[in-house]
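Q: Got one fold?
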Amino acid sequence: MSSLAFERLAKSYGGVDVVREVSLRIEQGEFVSLLGPSGCGKTTILRMAAGLVAPSRGRILIGEEDVTALPPNRRDLGLVFQSYALFPHLTVFENVAFGLRRKRTSPAEMQARVAEALAMVRLAAFGDRYPRQLSGGQQQRVAIARALAPRPRVLLLDEPLSNLDAQLRDEMQFELKRLQRGLGVTTLLVTHDQGEALSLSDKVCVMAHGVMQQFGPPEDIYRRPATSFVAGFIGRPNRLKGVVVTRRGGGGLLRIANGLMVEAGHVEVEEGGDAEIVIRPEAIGLAVRKRAEGEFAGRVVLRSFAGARAQVLARLDGGPELVIDLPSAALPDDLAPDAPVAVSISPSGVFALSGRTA
């Protein structure tokens, strides 16, 4: 197992920069996700790490070895694709043994390594089957076993769960985390799924427009966004325009539409400055009663039930519409469209940002 590092990594196509000077280090045994919207450069970074795309500038190091110019087969990597990429004419055993055969592993060791890899993904009894005889989740586990059997220095995962249905995807997230923790293999995951990145990773790298916006633990990415993009991208929050009226410590008082005042726990803008205001949906409370001091009066526009969670769209009197996320058990039974409600906003979930990206 080894660390993986990018030093001022960049890639251009036809004079257009798709990855711009990305520098980060994934320590030995860490699980790191590259997270961002389509076209942000995350897949290009993974393909450069794998040796499938040559960087325009910068270096890639595995451990202390500069592998920037090495072909994929000399980097000692495991790679799992979104499409599984299993060989349909080979059995599960032969699929998992493929990389070991290329390395000319002895028959006895190959047998032991394949059995070990299949046991790790709980498919020990499936060696004689063909991919067409497996479910999507089982095929993905075979692809993971194939990547792990040669005991790579680094494991690269290219949106490996995106083709699975929601329930199976949740199950496979636990499988991936269990495997990675058990093996201690350095892992880089590319995903556009926020929940996947936040729940699986030791650290998350948020990308936009080819630029690294923030790199750190999931808690920091969510609770202390470094840029306006990160604050607006993570968690699908409410986004408003406003002005910073006063600053106090790290927070302050904001003025939004029609003069409404909101307390913010995180303010980056100077007093009197225009701000991008981000309000987390789960930081908003709702009650069917008259508003108390410090609350806002509003009316329900829509409500949505989604199992354990529920969402309500409410319009503040004289102000904007806000999406409110709350446990479904806390959803008032008599909540109906146009019902008057009292809305409270926790300052800890309110950010006033400059609108800049990294």
Observations:
- The first helix runs from residue 42 to 50.
